[in-house]
Amino acid sequence: MTTTDNQATEAPDPASTPGASRAAKASRAVLPPLGLGLALVGLWYYVSYIVLEDKRRFLLRPIHQVIKVGFMDADNRTEELQALWSSTRIALIGLSIAISIGFTLAIIMSQAKVVEKAIFPYMVTLQAIPILAVVPLISFWFGTGATSRIVVCVMISLFPIIVNTLFGLQSAEQGAHDLFTLHHASRMTRLRKLMFPAALPAIFAGLRISAGLSVIGAIVGDFFFGKGDAGIGQLLRRHASRLNGEELLASVILSSLLGVVVFGFFGWIQKRATGRWHDAISAEA
Q1: pLDDT tens, 31-82?
Q2: Residues 58, 243: contact at Cβ < 8 Å?
Q3: Of 214, 103, 246, 101, nearest to 166 (Cα)?
Q4: Are residues 116 and 170 in contact, defined by beta-carbon separation less than 8 angstroms?
Q5: C-alpha span between 232 and 88 (Å, rounded)
Q6: According to CATH, what is the number of the domain 63-284?
Q7: Which residue, among 139, 136, 133, 109, has the nearest Cα to 123 in the 3D structure?
Q8: At a CB cut-off of 8 Å and minimum separation 6, what does 126 contact?
Q9: pLDDT tens, residue by residue, 126-175
């Protein structure tokens, strides 16, 4: 029997089949965070029952009590979900405004160096201003309702969008710019067909960062501006003042899940928009 016949009769390697490959990839993606999560739950129980005394256990209620009181109780669950929706709405509105402003400023700055030098220091200054320092001013100008919460979201989430979008627009190779110049391409053509496609990975990186920050901004704004629909921030403030440990931790968990969902959503969009192209570029490099 020839060598070719031996190779033809060999059984395929199960590890090389597409199904096995997908299962291995899924296990590598799921098992590490699952293992770490179980370890954190074990640490949670250890602190609740071993480290803390009975009279101090309100500082960190066991997780099963948090689920029972914070999520299984119908009244608390309804209140939590309503607050979650309020914070989600504020975060999405603030993020949308920040994206509009950030994209506009980044495009203008990418087209004129003098504009970039004029605007960028003020963007850094805005990022460096502590929110607590401007809370009284925001309340004077915009009141203590939803508008002030949106302003806080925009202030917190604007800077990463501008920085990452500007970096991406300026990251196109010089050789490609020379080719567009050779063909007498207009500014709009250069922006649309060269600079913007090259900027997509950086743009989505900025969007993922700003998406998480917008959730933080919505909760922080709700914490300080309590007029209107109660959000997660108001629940955190109320439960902390009343020492409601289970409800407080349930609100913290919901706010964290909101940030994870928004971050993951933009990551999914990035994968759909640039995944294959960006992976191919990385493999060639």
Answers
A1: 788 888 888 888 888 888 888 777 777 777 788 888 888 788 788 788 888 8
A2: yes
A3: 103
A4: no
A5: 9
A6: 1.10.3720.10
A7: 109
A8: 155, 158, 159
A9: 888 887 778 888 888 888 778 888 888 898 888 899 999 988 888 877 77
Q: Which residue has the tokens 């965070």?
A: 33
Q: How many Å is the Cα radius of gyration of the chain?
A: 25
Closest CA to 211 of 52, 93, 126, 63: 93
Residue where the block lists tokens 């050779």: 182
> Domain residue spans in the chain?
18-60, 63-284
Q: Are 48 and 246 in contact (CB under 8 A)?
A: no
State the alpha helices, DSSP H only, in 112-231: 113-128, 131-142, 146-169, 174-182, 187-190, 196-224
Whether 159 and 126 have beta carbons less than 8 Å apart is answered as: yes
Please answer whether residues 161 and 99 qualify as being in contact, where contact means their C-beta atoms are separated by less than 8 angstroms: yes
**Exposure letters 111-134 (e unless 16+ CB within 10 A, then b):** eeeeebeebeeebeeeeeeeeeee
What is the C-alpha to C-alpha distance for residues 245 and 234, in angstroms, rounded to an integer? 15
Burial class, 76, CB count within 10 angstroms (exposed 0-12 / middle 13-18 / buried 19+) = buried
Q: Which two tokens stand for residue 205?
A: 């990186």
pTM of this structure: 0.78
Whole-number Å distance between alpha carbons of 285 and 271 = 19
- Could you give the C-alpha distances from 238 to 68, 145, 153, in angstroms and in order? 19, 17, 21
